[in-house]
Amino acid sequence: MSKLSETELFDEQLEKAKNLHGEVCGGIVSGTKMAIHAMKELNMDFNQKKNKDLIVFLEIDRCMADAIQAVTGCSLGKRTLKLKNYGKFAATFYKISTGEAIRIASNKNEKSEYPEETIEEKIKRVKNTPSEELFNIQKVKIRIDENELPGRPRDEKFCSICSEQIMDSKQNLVSGKPVCKSCHEGSYYEII
Ligand SMILES: [Zn+2]
Ligand SMILES: [Zn+2]
């Protein structure tokens, strides 16, 4: 376990978030606080190379997301970071082995509540305020399909239309044949 004090731990983790994001902004400060709170609640060690027991569901793809990735070590490529884009400043931290999950959401409009606050002031305020005062924190239950879990692929198919490979059971079945999402539903791209 870390022997750092509460504030030293915050500074250490904020530095990691800064390195990933490129700067310290408001979202990075909040995201760092959220991730630290969740990791502690779930009894997880910081700064591990691999954490195969944690999945984070992110509800936004803004600055906060990078802080959570930096602190938890969860990432898209490890299949431990899932984007559920509700456009909300919130994330759920799910411990696979025990099924425990904590959802943490920002409960205030920071910009209107602290219009004059500098980033240095925000760092100080957030560092020294208990998470419970900054956020709504809920215990939740997660339903997750086994095809979404980390580890070896459980299903691999080829699209019967475009022939491209489809991992993790993302295909649709059309007349019993696998069809990828872009062939089936239409795509975000157009071939030119
Ligand atoms: Zn930012
Ligand atoms: Zn296809």
Structure description:
The protein contains 7 helices and 9 strands; from the N terminus they run H-H-E-H-E-E-E-H-H-H-E-E-E-E-E-H. With 192 residues, it is an alpha+beta fold. It has 2 domains: 6-139, 60s Ribosomal Protein L30, Chain: A; 152-185, Wheat Germ Agglutinin (Isolectin 2), domain 1 (2-Layer Sandwich). The mean pLDDT is 95. Residues 159, 161-162, 164, 179-180, 182-183 line the site of one zinc ion (ZN).
Give a short synopsis of this structure:
The chain is an alpha+beta fold and 192 residues long. It has helices at residues 6-21, 26-41, 63-72, 110-113, 119-128, 131-134, 181-185; strands spanning 54-58, 81-83, 90-95, 101-106, 135-139, 156-158, 165-167, 172-174, 177-179.
Per the principal axes of the C-alpha atoms, what is the gross shape? elongated
Poorly predicted segments: none
Sequence of secondary-structure elements: HHEHEEEHHHEEEEEH
| Average residue pLDDT | 95
Backbone structural class: alpha+beta
**Helix content range of the residues, please?**
25-40%
The hetero compounds bound to this protein are: zinc ion
| Biggest sheet details | 5 strands, mixed
User: What's the assembly state of these chains?
Assistant: single chain
The CATH architecture term of the largest domain is 2-Layer Sandwich
Tell me the radius of gyration.
Answer: 19 Å
Strand neighbour order, sheet with most strands: 2-1-3-4-5
Number of strands: 9
Helical stretch tally: 7
Q: How far apart are the first and last residues' alpha carbons, in Å?
A: 55 Å
Strand content: 15-25%
CATH class identity of the largest domain? Alpha Beta
Please indicate the count of domains. 2
Q: Find the CATH topology of the largest domain.
A: 60s Ribosomal Protein L30, Chain: A
